[in-house]
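Work Package 3 (structural annotation) set out to generate three-dimensional models for the target panel prioritized at the project kickoff. During this period the team completed the workflow that converts sequence records into discrete structure tokens, so that structures can be stored uniformly alongside our sequence database. As a representative example, we reproduce one entry of 219 residues exactly as it appears in the project archive.
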Amino acid sequence: MERHFERSLQELVDDLKTMTDKVVASLDSAAKGLLERDASPCNTVFDIEKETDDMEVLINEKLLDFIALQQPVAVDLRFALSLQDIVVDLERIGDHCANIAQSAISLSMLRSSPDLLALPEMIPLARTMLQDSVLSFLNRDTALARRVLSMDDRMDEFNRNLARAVINSIKEDRELVETSLEIMRISKNLERIGDLSTNIAEDALFTAEGRIARHQPQA
């Protein structure tokens, strides 16, 4: 029985790693399309989005079986409950990657290269938050989880500053309205990826410590 429990748990861990890799690949492809003004990598994002949707369903089915049949307790039960939330967050991150890819395709059709403002800095930050949040959950690394939480303020600041810059550029040149709105959409989607990664880091803290991080004062 114990061997079957461990095998089922490891299978869930492996599935989470696979889903995370897919979402990271989706973000990378969307970023490549944006930064290189090439629509072709963006098409990959839409294929990956379907795959992550399927993985969300698969993992949730396995989770229900795991909880019903194995009846986990304590940290293993917290792991299962948190994993259920995390796969939803990963699926939503995949949706935001698709949104970024769609905007990148629109921007790639412009005659001249647009000013991407802070987007080249926001992309690696979002990627780091995504990867580190899942890693903190898998390794029950509370220090790494808290580091992800601290990155969210920086992401929010990037998004606010970019929004102000976009508004100023529109005031100066009305022809930049459509381009500026696409830049703002990408920024907002990256900010949402940061928020969802923060949710995952909070789940990591819940799994490791049994406390809900968003209800605890930050040190």
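The mean pLDDT is 93.
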